[in-house]
Amino acid sequence: MSLSELLGSVIQAGMTASTSDRLRNSLAGGSADSGGLLENLASMLGGAGSGSGGLLDNLSSMLGGASGGGLGGLLGSVLGEAEQAVGGRDNLALGGLGALAGALLGGGGKSMGGAIGGGLLALLGAMAFRALRAAGAETADVPIGLMEPKTDADRRRLEEHAELILKAMINAAKADGQIDQGEVQRIIGKLQEDGIDQNEQQFIIMEMQKPMQTERLIAAARGRREVAAEIYAASLLAIEVDTPAEKEYLNQLEAGLGLTSEVTQQIRGFTGV
After folding, report:
1. Whether 78 contacts 130, CB under 8 Å
2. How far is Cα 137 from Cα 57, in angstroms, rounded to an integer?
3. CB of 133 within 8 A of CB of 140?
């Protein structure tokens, strides 16, 4: 079972009506003078500039940015730091970020599911890395999802992390009660459309039917503040945060994960919550 592929399909289906908007906010938000997603992906992926008429121009238009790299945003301010921390851009998961960006334009089929899932892990890693550093954690490590896997051991760790993030999103969706049956059918329909097999579909259904496992999630992140911040960010992608139960759930996560309000406010700002 490829957990990254499953995660990619689920994120394309959208855990909530706001999921895509929050992804766009995370990719495009921030100050215009920090250097943005378009600028960084164009240079780091070796793509053409604003005259190419391809993904970068289309993404710029969709996200409301200026063509040629004037967007600014989270990735613009984090990729440079992360590149230095991991010893070069070849060690960053830039291809997955490009796949995720393309999915926001309506692209990405079955063959892209794993790349989109990897892109989500990279984006969550970028949010966690930036939020922790902005809150004064100068020694924050680069999260696993933001690093390009080089070995089989790296890939196994990334798959384990994808499973944790997927479970965190599903758990958050249960915060105000049982997941709506319409949401279940929409997500399963997307998995079927992407050719996800019956066993993997059943895995998602079973996770949706389980009781909440908040304490297990908190325990899995104990001593790993980057993972804690990613779980919080993933949860924001999975719920609307428009009910008292959902707000209480986020408060419970913040306290249980040991995150400061400065870190969680940074992450909320990235997602536009």
Report:
1. yes
2. 35
3. yes
pLDDT of residue 1: 66
> For the chain, what are the domain ranges?
3-271
Q: Residues 71, 74, 79, CA angle at the centre, nearest 5°?
A: 100
Q: Are 25 and 72 in contact (CB under 8 A)?
A: no
Q: What pTM value is reported for the model?
A: 0.84
* 139 vs 111, higher pLDDT: 139
Q: CB-side exposure of 103: number of CA atoms within 13 Å?
A: 32
> Which among 25, 53, 42 has a CA at the least distance from the CA of 123?
25
75 to each of 12, 34, 93, 149, how far by Cα in Å? 20, 9, 12, 19
> With 60 as the cut, is the pLDDT of residue 235 above it?
yes
Tell me the C-alpha to C-alpha distance, in Å, between residue 251 and each of 46, 165, 262: 42, 18, 13
